[in-house]
Structure formats: C-alpha cells, structure tokens
C-alpha cells in the first residue's frame, strides 16, 4: 500500500484540494487520512490515446513533399504502404517502444493500437502468426504504458469486394484465421493489456465477415473499433454500392453501442450526427492527423450538444501530444464557425476542462479499461504537472487546464504513473535513452535499405 497526496487533484466533478490517493496492487483504493507522500500541486488522470498505428511514427515527415498536384489521403497512403512493407517484428518493437516513451512523457497512459501490419512483406504468415502483435505487446510492457491491442480484420480493397492490392496483402486475414489470432492474444490479458477487435473499414470488411466477427462471442464485452467516413470518396462509394452513407449503414446493420469506437467519422449528415451520439459509441477524433491528411472537420458542436461521447488519438503520430490534439480539436471548430470557445458544456464554460474531461471518459470507454479517473477501483494511472513551469505561474484551478492546453508547446508533464508504477520522473522516461538509441539504429538501417 502506498499513499500520496496532491494539492489539487482532478476528480470527475472537477478540482478538489488536499486529496489523498491510496494505491494497492496497481489500483486506487478508498483512502484514509494518514501520512502521505507529496505528489505536487496539480495531479490529473492520464489521458487514453484511442487510436494509434505505431509503425507510422517512423515515417513522420516523409510524406510532406508534393508528389501530385492533387495530393490527398489516397496518395499519402501509397507512401505509407511502401514504408510498411519494410518493417518486421524487431523493427516494429523498436518503433513502438520509442513512440510509447513519447506518449508517456506527454501524459498518455493507455494506447489503443489499431494493428493491421500482420504478416511478412510477401503476405506469408510468420512462424508465429501473432509475431507482429507480440512485438507491440513487448513494446508496451518494456515502456510501461497500458495497451488495448486491436488486431484488425482487413479483407478487401473496396466496397465492390476487389482483392487486396499487392502492398495490402500482408494486412489480410481469412475470417477464421483472424478469430484464431484474437483468441490467441486474449490469453495474454492482464491489468495493463486488453485485447479488443478492429474492423479496418466498411470498404475492407465485407458484410458476411462483419457478421461472423460480431457473432463469434469474442466481442461480447470487448472494445470494437472501426475507421469510418474519413474521406468524401469513401462516403460516395458507400452511397453508390450500399445506397447509404457509411455511418448510416453501420448503425442500421450492426449493434453499435458503448463497446464501439468509430474512428474519424468526419463526414456525417445531420441525421448521422444525432444517431451516432444517441448510440453511446465513441467518436474517435485525431485532429492532427486529420489535418495532416486533409480529411475535413468533425461536426463537434452538434455532436456534443446531442450528448455524444468523444476521445482523442494521435493516429499517424505526426504529433504525440494530447494537448495538441485537444487544441486543434477546438481550433478546427473556430476556423469553421469563425467564433471562439466552441467546446463547452452546461457544467463548464472552460474549453480545456470540457475537452479534458470528455476525452478522459471517452478514451477510457474506447480502451475497455477502468481508467480515466482517480477514483477508488480505477487503475492507478496519473500525471503530475510541473508547477514550476512559467505557463502555470499564478494560475488557479479556474484557468489551469485552459492554460495547459492553450499556452504553447513546452511539455508541462513532470511525472507519470501507470498501474501504480512510475514510468516518467522529472519529464524523462525511466529507460528513454536506451530505447531512443535502439530506435535511431533501426531508422538508420531502414534508410539504408
């Protein structure tokens, strides 16, 4: 049993002063007043990152030269495929570990890994069909971050059922092989590892395969994630071949509820926006990646007003900062509406508090883990801010989160705990130097190929 106290601690109802946090077996327990170690002035739950493609961190900056006057998500995807084709389990572990160090140092304590890089580059399975998945598990355990691993089903190249293109073939699974992979990984679950499922997209998962996964019994109480309505072209193809928009079709043909996370869901009709909000599913928003790829803007205000649940992810990892995701989630809406202070609620007129609280809740739901709060029973994840940082000078609780989100790019995270274990102290990961050196070596080798 370890007991801590903080001057100001963020609870679901907001800031509370001089609270005691007691930790046993990696979880918060009901605390009694007793001598306690001082954490710091500002203590908050760690933020869940609900959407990650870890290998893409290593290609950040490599797709920023124009290859076509009409460059878009679809041309970026070709660059991504070429890069993905060179990565095996050892490289993936090194890249993911570096990424997870950066996430922890930024205040993320759980990551949902939307993992479709399954097989060898020639599309043959590894001797252990779970080799690439296990590389991610090992990276998470090495760094200490909580992991919701989402092995991804990927079968077709479009709504018309065309076969996977040559560079997509290593992503593919027959349905039974995919379910066997999920079952194999499920045996590894513990307090910091959760196994869910991901359906790459409606264009990549035929209706029969979708039904087979949902009927398998493997998702009855597990997170289910899907890319959806990210691009206008995707919406147009779905309308042409299924006579419905993607979110409209999914809500009509699958039992979408709180288990589900719809990643991006950028292009929604007014009716889809309300229906998605009422479903209880999470809208998984990745503002820096969505901006980088030119995806578009999610209808945030209407969705929040309808009671919708949101969370944030860093997706392609051109940025690894929950603060930047929250900032650009709000800024996109300001640019769209030409007004300020959009993401507020009846309970708070603070943009920072509203987005931080909403994304803690939605990220925990998407992760399928009891995290996102400092209440008894939750896993003991927390973040301590650097109260000596100039950006927080003279700030009281009323402006603290707004000052963190909207005061620049200096990282204000000082200490980070996951499941009762310190991963970051004084802004530095406990094993960051060794992991960074290995990552640099891997990138040099990839660049030399």
UniProtKB/TrEMBL annotation:
Provide the Amidohydrolase-related domain boundaries: 42-422
Q: Which SUPFAM superfamilies match?
A: Composite domain of metallo-dependent hydrolases, Metallo-dependent hydrolases
Know the name of this protein?
Formimidoylglutamate deiminase
Which UniProt keywords are listed?
Hydrolase, Metal-binding, Zinc
UniProt entry tagged with the keyword Zinc: yes
What organism does this protein naturally occur in? Tahibacter aquaticus
What this protein needs as a cofactor is: Zn(2+)
Q: Which domain of life is it from?
A: Bacteria
| GO CC annotations, alphabetized | cytosol
Q: Name one GO molecular function term.
A: deaminase activity
Pfam families linked to this entry: Amidohydro_1
């Amino acid at each position: 049993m370890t007991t801590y106290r903080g001057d100001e601690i963020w609870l679901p109802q907001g800031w509370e002063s001089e609270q005691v946090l007691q930790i046993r077996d990696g979880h918060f327990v009901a605390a009694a007043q007793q001598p306690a170690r001082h954490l710091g002035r500002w203590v908050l739950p760690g933020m869940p990152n609900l959407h990650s493609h870890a290998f893409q961190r290593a290609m950040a900056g490599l797709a920023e030269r124009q290859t076509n006057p009409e460059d878009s998500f679809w041309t970026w995807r070709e660059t991504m495929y070429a890069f993905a084709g060179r990565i095996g389990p050892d490289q993936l572990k090194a890249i993911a570990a570096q990424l997870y160090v950066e996430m922890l140092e930024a205040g993320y304590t759980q990551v949902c890994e939307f993992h479709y890089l399954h097989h060898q580059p020639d599309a043959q399975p590894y001797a252990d069909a779970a080799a690439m998945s296990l590389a991610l598990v090992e990276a998470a355990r090495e760094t200490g971050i909580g992991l919701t691993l989402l092995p991804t089903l990927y079968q077709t190249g479009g709504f018309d059922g065309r076969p996977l293109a040559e560079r997509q073939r290593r992503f593919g699974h027959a349905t039974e092989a995919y379910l066997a992979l999920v079952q194999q990984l499920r045996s590894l679950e513990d307090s910091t590892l959760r196994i869910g499922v991901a359906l790459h997209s409606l264009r990549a998962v035929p209706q029969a395969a979708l039904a087979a996964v949902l009927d398998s019994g493997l998702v009855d109480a597990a997170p289910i994630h899907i890319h959806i309505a990210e691009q206008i072209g995707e919406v147009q193809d779905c309308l042409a071949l299924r006579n419905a928009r993607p979110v409209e079709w999914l809500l009509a043909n699958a039992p979408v509820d709180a288990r589900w996370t719809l990643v991006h869901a950028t292009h929604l009709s007014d009716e889809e926006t309300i229906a998605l909000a009422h479903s209880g599913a999470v809208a998984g928003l990745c503002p820096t990646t969505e901006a980088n790829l030119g995806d578009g803007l999610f209808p945030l205000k209407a969705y929040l007003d309808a009671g919708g649940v949101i969370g944030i992810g860093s997706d392609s990892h051109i940025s690894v900062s929950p603060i930047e995701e929250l900032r650009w989630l709000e800024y996109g809406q300001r640019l769209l509406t030409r007004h300020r202070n959009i993401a507020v609620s009846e309970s708070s007129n603070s943009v920072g508090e509203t987005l931080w609280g909403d994304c803690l809740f939605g990220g925990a739901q998407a992760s399928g883990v009891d995290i996102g709060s400092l209440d008894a029973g939750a896993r003991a994840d927390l973040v301590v801010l650097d109260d000596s940082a100039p950006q927080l000078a003279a700030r009281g609780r009323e402006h603290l989160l707004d000052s963190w989100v909207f005061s620049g790019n200096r990282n204000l995270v000082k200490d980070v705990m996951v499941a009762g274990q310190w991963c970051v102290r004084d802004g530095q990961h406990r094993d960051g130097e060794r992991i960074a050196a290995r990552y640099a070596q891997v990138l040099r080798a990839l660049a030399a190929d």
